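Progress note, sequence design subtask.
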C-alpha cells in the first residue's frame, strides 16, 4: 500500500505541476489577446494542447493507481475519489496528511486556472465585439446613403445615391 500511495502522490504532484504550466500559459495568452498577436496565440494553444495531452496520460495513471488502491482496500473503484481515500486513511495520519496537502495544492491551482480562463474568455468576447463593430463600420462606410424616393404605394424604393461626390463643375 505504501508504494501505491507514493505512486499516487507522485502522479498528483506532477498533475499539479502541469496545471501550473497551464496557468502560466493563460497569463501569456492574456497578453497575446490584448496585443492581438495571432502567432503568439497559435503557439500558446499548441503548448496548451501538449500539456493537456500529458495531463490525460497522468489521468490514466492516476486512475490505474486508484483502481489498485480500491482493490487493496476492498472498495468499489467507481466510487473511489481522493477525498474518500483521505477518509479511508484514518489509521495512517502521515499518509492522510500528505495526500490532503497534494489535493489542496491541486484545488488551489485549479481555481487559479479557472479564474484565468474566465478572464481570457471575457477578453476574447470583447475582441470579437470589437471586430464586429469594425466590420459594421467598414460596411457602412462603403455603402452609399439611400434616397428618400417612394413609389406610388408609399414604399421606399431603396435607390442609392451615386458615389460621384459633388456634381459641381470646376
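Output:
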Amino acid at each position: 500500500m505504501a508504494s501505491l500511495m507514493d505512486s499516487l502522490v507522485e502522479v498528483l504532484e506532477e498533475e499539479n505541476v502541469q496545471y501550473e504550466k497551464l496557468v502560466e500559459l493563460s497569463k501569456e495568452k492574456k497578453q497575446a489577446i490584448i496585443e492581438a498577436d495571432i502567432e503568439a496565440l497559435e503557439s500558446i494553444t499548441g503548448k496548451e494542447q501538449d500539456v493537456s495531452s500529458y495531463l490525460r496520460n497522468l489521468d490514466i495513471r492516476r486512475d490505474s493507481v486508484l483502481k489498485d488502491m480500491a482493490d487493496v482496500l476492498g472498495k468499489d473503484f467507481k466510487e473511489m475519489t481522493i477525498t474518500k481515500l483521505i477518509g479511508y486513511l484514518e489509521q495512517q495520519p502521515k499518509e492522510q496528511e500528505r495526500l490532503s496537502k497534494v489535493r489542496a495544492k491541486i484545488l488551489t491551482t485549479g481555481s487559479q486556472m479557472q479564474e484565468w480562463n474566465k478572464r481570457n474568455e471575457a477578453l476574447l468576447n470583447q475582441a470579437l465585439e470589437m471586430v464586429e463593430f469594425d466590420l459594421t463600420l467598414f460596411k457602412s462606410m462603403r455603402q452609399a446613403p439611400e434616397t428618400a424616393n417612394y413609389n406610388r404605394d408609399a414604399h421606399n424604393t431603396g435607390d442609392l445615391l451615386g458615389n460621384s461626390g459633388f456634381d459641381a463643375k470646376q
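The chain has a mean pLDDT of 86. Work on this subtask will continue into the next period as scheduled.
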